[in-house]
């Protein structure tokens, strides 16, 4: 498979902050690449560099086989960017919005009409085409934002958290329309801090934290890691005297995380014995008020790698 994007040792430094700290990855033709990370991970900075809105401090970006520094104009023609902050005109109709953005790419006449219609149909707003966005819900505005970004039929679509703060129905519409775009042949980079979305639509996943890529792979590769693990959560009282090292040193323990009276552990199924864990907690004088266990998820992988929850 060809690479549509290749990023090598990309860095972005602000005066007081390293937002992207030397990342390397590629995006293959026809895939949906999920870019997962909490707020501040460096997703938007990365995306804005690819979208040619921001310049990098160092590193090399190749898009469609061309150097981003040398062929910005040409590359721009083939990209559609859905920015994190909605960028539409509230006072002109939905259709005029889409027509305006598509028109920036020199599309005219009948072709323009067809593509505008297709874009509005894709996001299920064609029946509202004559209405102004100021009358729309947040979710509808997000969908219109997407229509504006893809009406010129770009080969590469980059979406930055397009589902933040919207109703579940709009969210499903958006995820469905992304799959349709993929089936029509587009390559998609999709950034989010919702792991369920990444799991639902991505072919490959990159997990970012603090300007770095901390995990990457196909969904199957990450899932394989996950499927050997279970995450337990114990609600405890008489917790103060617990010697955490005793827990960390038990067989099969991958990670221990403690918040207030909750003890979370990620354990390797084949090596971990729950009865031993309970025996240790009891011997330490802790009272177990409740316990839950769940299959590990991308959220667990993130916790395991960073000690943080994705939504902190
Ligand atoms: P994300 O999109 O994953 O939430 P961002 O790329 O927006 O992350 O931000 C990465 C880091 O860079 C954050 O710590 C953010 O505060 C910082 N940052 C982003 N833009 C600027 C800027 N213009 N000046 C200084 N720091 C910035
Ligand atoms: Mg962002």
UniProtKB/TrEMBL annotation:
It comes from Bacillus atrophaeus (strain 1942). This is ABC-type MDR transporter, ATPase component. Keywords: ATP-binding, Nucleotide-binding. InterPro entries: AAA+_ATPase (IPR003593), ABC_transporter-like_ATP-bd (IPR003439), ABC_transporter-like_CS (IPR017871), P-loop_NTPase (IPR027417). Residues 5-235 form the ABC transporter domain. PROSITE patterns: ABC_TRANSPORTER_1, ABC_TRANSPORTER_2. Gene3D superfamilies: P-loop containing nucleotide triphosphate hydrolases. It comes from the Bacteria. SMART domains: AAA.
């Amino acid at each position: 498979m060809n690479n549509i994007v290749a990023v090598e040792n990309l860095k972005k430094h602000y005066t007081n902050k390293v937002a992207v700290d030397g990342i390397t990855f590629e995006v293959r033709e026809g895939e949906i690449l999920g870019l997962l990370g909490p707020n501040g991970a460096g997703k938007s900075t990365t995306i804005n560099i690819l979208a040619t809105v921001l310049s990098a401090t160092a590193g090399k970006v190749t898009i469609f086989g061309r150097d981003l520094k040398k062929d910005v104009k040409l590359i721009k023609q083939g990209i559609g960017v859905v920015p994190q902050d909605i960028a539409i005109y509230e006072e002109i109709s939905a259709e005029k919005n889409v027509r305006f953005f598509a028109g920036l790419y020199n599309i005219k006449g009948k072709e323009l009409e067809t593509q505008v219609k297709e874009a509005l149909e894709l996001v299920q707003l064609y029946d509202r085409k004559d209405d102004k966005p100021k009358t729309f819900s947040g979710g509808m505005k997000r969908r219109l934002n997407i229509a504006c970004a893809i009406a010129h039929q770009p080969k590469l679509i980059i979406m930055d958290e397009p589902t933040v703060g919207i109703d579940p129905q709009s969210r499903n519409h958006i995820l469905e329309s992304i799959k349709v775009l993929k089936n029509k042949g587009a390559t998609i980079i999709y950034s989010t801090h919702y792991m369920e979305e990444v799991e639902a639509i991505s072919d490959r996943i990159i997990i970012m934290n603090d300007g770095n890529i901390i995990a990457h792979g196909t969904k199957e590769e990450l899932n394989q890691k996950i499927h050997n693990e279970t995450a337990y959560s114990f609600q405890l009282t008489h917790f103060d005297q617990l010697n955490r090292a005793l827990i960390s040193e038990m067989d099969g323990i991958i990670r221990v995380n403690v918040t207030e009276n909750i003890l979370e552990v990620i354990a390797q199924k084949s090596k971990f014995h729950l009865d031993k864990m309970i025996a240790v907690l009891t011997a330490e004088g802790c009272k177990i008020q409740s316990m839950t266990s769940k299959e590990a998820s991308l959220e667990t992988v993130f916790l395991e790698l960073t000690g943080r929850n994705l939504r902190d």
